[in-house]
Amino acid sequence: MGAVKLELHCGSQRVDGIVVDPEPDWSFDALVSELNALETKLATTSTKPSSLNKTTSRGNEIERGRTFKLHAHEYEMEDTESEDDDVNDDRALVVAGKRITCDELYLSDSDDSDVMSAFEVQPYLMDEVEEVEGALFELTHEHQLRVKDEIRSKISVLESALVNESQNATSSLLRVEKYKTTRQELDKKFDTQYQRRIAEELDNHLTAVQQDRERRSQIEERKIRNDAANEEAKRKIALQEEKKQQEKAKAEAEAKLRAEEAKQAALEAERKAVMETKRKAAMEAEKRAEKETIGNSERVTSGATQQEAAGRPTDSASSLSNVETKKSGNVCQAAASALNLEHGRLQKLTELYERNQLIRSSSNKDYTRHENHIFRNIKTIRGSRDSVRSKASDLIKLLNDPQYPQSISVETFAKKVVSNAKAPGSAPFASAYVIVLVTSQVPHAMDILLAELHRVCPYTVPKHMVYKKSTFQSKEAYFKSIGYWEENGKMESTEDYLQRLESYVKMYAALVQTEIPKVQNLHGLQHGWAWLARFLNSLPANQYTAVSLDAFLRMAGFALFRRYKSQFLKMLNTISENFLVDLKSRNAPELRKTIAEIQTYIEDKMFLQEPEGRSLQTNLLSKECVVR
């Protein structure tokens, strides 16, 4: 609803420091009392009486008839239409022209200052009104008060309703929250039950799947066992057949060998008979010559006597020369024990070759694919434990394959291992690991492999052939005897031969020093120690033996020192004091590099450092193949 505001028709709203700011909801009696109080205050507190007489251009004439006006200002309301109606009624009362006259009150029009210049107060602020108008005003005032009371009561009712509604809304919200909480707990409970049911179903499903897998695994295992049993039966049958064939071949070979031995015995007996006949004839001729010499000694002239005397020393010199030739006919320098071992291994290799030749001639089966399979496994050996394990396992299976005679598989294995040793990218330590693992399952393959190695490289015996013109027809024949290759009628260079010789000795040295826990090396470190002792005791110091010794020390010196300690150091002292001295005495330019390498190896104590490649790279191999 609107409010009634009393405004003064003057230039300033402040008079002597008093602000005219009537309350908008004052009653008529309150307004009258307020005006009387204002009049009294102005009369008593005025300090400038002369200013009250100040006039404008019209002189000291007091302007009468000026009045207060009651105006109703419009305010934005948010109440109901009844409140708007009350405001309209108030505005109607104001518009009706009800004026409060102040005929005796003088208000100055001057704008010179904020304080009123003069203000005259009359005893009466209002004109006298009639009784009817006063009653009408009172009725109007009572009506206004009644309307206000009704409005206040309605507002109170509305406020109570609003409070009740707010309380109801709060209660409803609490009930909703409680329902929400209860519902969440129920949903959580249902979710837990559902998850538990899902877990149970999943567990049952997994159990069923596991049981099904176990059943399938059992079926597969039974199938594998049955297949293995069948394969084992087939293998036994094949082994029996192979054994029969081997026995047959052995019998044929023995028969052939006996025939050869009988033939050789006959030839030897014939040769001995011829030699005995020649010896007897020579003795008879010598006796006859002596008799003739004694009977005719008196008739021999002095010249003849001198010639005969000169002729006898010539015969003696010729005889001594023959003796020396026979003594120097042994061109092989090696320890007797090493030669005996070589002879036994080469004999086994020869017997194996003859047996395989009989098998190939008696059978139309092609073994090329099997041999290529063995060679591929050997060729792809690398210096990692995973490669060593897989290749050794595959080679053991191939050597024990019942579809192929084991003798042919072993021969192929030995040849391919030795052939692969000379390849530039070969890994001698990895190959040695494979050899030890394979020969631990197929023991007789070790002697065949060593015999093949002795055949292509005599320095692995160790053995050295001395060149003698009386023994070798030419230099080429000598080179062939120590392992030189001949291609297209041309002998290979010494540099190529020494490079291949070094590769063979490195593989042999890697083999003797390989030690695998729980796996027996049939040609272990004790054989490497024996090789070094025989080498230093029997072989001369030259270019071939120097290269062989350097390669052997670099591969096996680390393991030999760990095993033999001070004894190995004594060996090194022997090499420094004897072998290297002999090499230096030759004063050959091609020996300088090898001499420097051996001397550096000993002086720098390189035997304390583990050679590169000795420890396999990855950890995929089983613990049996770990280097200790």
Write the layout of secondary structure elements.
Layout: E1 3-7, E2 14-15, E3 18-19, H1 28-45, H2 49-52, E4 67-73, H3 81-95, E5 100-101, E6 106-107, E7 119-120, H4 131-295, H5 302-327, E8 332-333, H6 336-362, H7 368-379, H8 385-399, H9 406-421, H10 428-441, H11 445-456, E9 464-465, H12 475-481, E10 486-487, E11 490-491, H13 494-513, H14 525-538, H15 543-564, H16 566-586, H17 592-603
Antiparallel strand pairs: 1-4, 2-3, 4-5, 6-7, 8-9, 10-11
Helix pairs in contact: 4-6, 6-11, 7-8, 7-9, 8-10, 9-11, 10-13, 13-15, 14-15, 15-16, 15-17, 16-17
Describe the 3D structure:
With 628 residues, this protein is mostly helical. It folds into three domains: 3-128, no CATH class; 144-288; 335-625, Alpha Horseshoe (Serine Threonine Protein Phosphatase 5, Tetratricopeptide repeat). Helices cover 67% and strands 5% of the residues. The protein is built from 17 helices and eleven strands. It has helices spanning 28-45, 49-52, 81-95, 131-295, 302-327, 336-362, 368-379, 385-399, 406-421, 428-441, 445-456, 475-481, 494-513, 525-538, 543-564, 566-586, 592-603, and strands at residues 3-7, 14-15, 18-19, 67-73, 100-101, 106-107, 119-120, 332-333, 464-465, 486-487, 490-491. The strands form five sheets. It has a three-stranded antiparallel β-sheet. The longest helix has 165 residues, at 131-295. The model is unreliable at 1-6, 8-12, 47-126, 292-329 and 620-628 (pLDDT under 50). It is found in: Nucleus, Nuclear pore complex. Residues 211-227, 278-293 have a biased composition (Basic and acidic residues). Keywords: mRNA transport, Nuclear pore complex, Nucleus, Protein transport, Translocation, Transport.
